[in-house]
Amino acid sequence: MTERPSDLPEHEQQAWEAIVADLSGQIDLGPQFPKERSLPALSADGDHPDPLAEPPELDDDEEVGYQPPHPPPLPRPRDATARFAWAAVIGGPTLVLVVNALGWEGWLSGVGVVATVAGFAALVARMKDEREDDGDNGAVV
């Protein structure tokens, strides 16, 4: 392969040649960086590890690592208005899907749309304007 004349300055040309030599393994970086790769050598007799093999199972005695605590249960709405609003928000689209899936024509799908919009409006109207400040500045580590 013939080399093309380069219009790069001499120091940049040397830098590129050093990078190419490093990538091809031609540079000795000293005892801190051995030339041997960290990957196992492939051999014909099959004594290299199989990359598709299942990882070894952990013993029960070994430490598995951090396991987060279970999340607390979802809070239930305290009053009947919030319960009906959530039922409308969830039940309205369900009603529309069932009516359309069964092929029923009529006013029932309109009831589902109105229930969804009314439930959403009720939930938004009941939202608090400000957050409760509990004095915490963020996550607990």
Molecular structure report:
The chain is mainly α. The chain is 39% helix and 0% strand. It is built from three helices and no strands. Helix 2 (80-102) runs antiparallel to helix 3.
Counted beta strands = 0
- Low-pLDDT stretches: none
Helix and strand composition category: mainly alpha
Radius of gyration: 34 Å
Strand content: under 5%
Alpha-carbon distance between the two ends: 59 Å
Proportion of residues in helical segments:
25-40%
Secondary-structure map with pairings?
Elements: H1 10-23, H2 80-102, H3 108-125
Helix pairs in contact: 2-3
Structural features:
141 residues; mainly alpha; 3 helices; 0% strand
Describe the structure in brief.
With 141 residues, the protein is mostly helical.
